[in-house]
Amino acid sequence: MRTNIKWLMNANEIEENKTLRNNILFYNAQNPYSQLEVPVRAEPIYETTSYSFKVANVIDYIIEPTKDKDLIVNLSGRGEKRFEWEPNLVNKLELIFNGE
Q1: Distance between CA 82 and CA 65 in Å, rounded?
Q2: 3-class DSSP state for residue 81?
Q3: Residue 40 CB neighbour total at 10 angstroms
Q4: Nearest 5°: CA angle at 51, between 48 and 54?
Q5: Which of 33, 58, 78, 88 is most buried, judging by how many CB atoms fall within 10 Å of its CB?
Q6: H or E segment at 23?
Q7: pLDDT digits 0-9 by tens, 74-96
Q8: How confident is the model at residue 100 (pLDDT cuts 50, 70, 90)?
Q9: 73, β-bridge pairs
Q10: pTM of the full predicted structure?
């Protein structure tokens, strides 16, 4: 099956932002009279490219319940991959895992 794969471009920035937010929230909980401003969450930035794989190698899949409806697919020997929403891929995965 050929589809578009998405990968995260700013993973380090998101991790640093998460750590900073947690530290500031902890500080604010300990010091109620000198509160610090909590930064907004860093939004993920994705890049896409084409990717091909055999549907027989799919262990399981999840449809992410967001407006983008990304598919998170666990491939045998490759790990978790994030794919763009594609109705043909979803239909084929549902046919394999749920039957007709």
Answers
A1: 13
A2: strand
A3: 8
A4: 150
A5: 58
A6: helix 11-30
A7: 999 999 999 999 999 999 999 88
A8: low
A9: 61, 81
A10: 0.72
